[in-house]
User: Fold this.
Amino acid sequence: FFFFFFFSSPHKPTMSVENGATIFKQRCAQCHTVAAGEPHKTGPNLHGLFGRKTGQAPGFAYSDANKSKGITWDETTLFEYLLNPKKYIPGTKMVFAGIKKESERNDLIAYLKSSTA
Assistant:
């Protein structure tokens, strides 16, 4: 069971919120905010991201592709999305190549879980 879980999970057991904060500042903060009440930028405010369906942050003008994707954001969907946003949601307005390193995606997700709740 442990072998199956460890190798079938896209998420490594060690995730660093601190590293994720650095990644967010370097790659995401120019377009996104995370705290409740902060304004949208080029991208939506990410507060309340986990458990929300795609294209649902109030007051942000999403692409039709993002609104109709119909998935709920969680660790697994974000892990896949952050690898290649345009492949995961064809037609998205998000201009971001993605994060190839699994450890960096895991760290960013850890940061987002802690900062958007």
Q: What stands out?
A: The longest helix spans residues 102-115. The two ends are 31 Å apart (CA to CA).
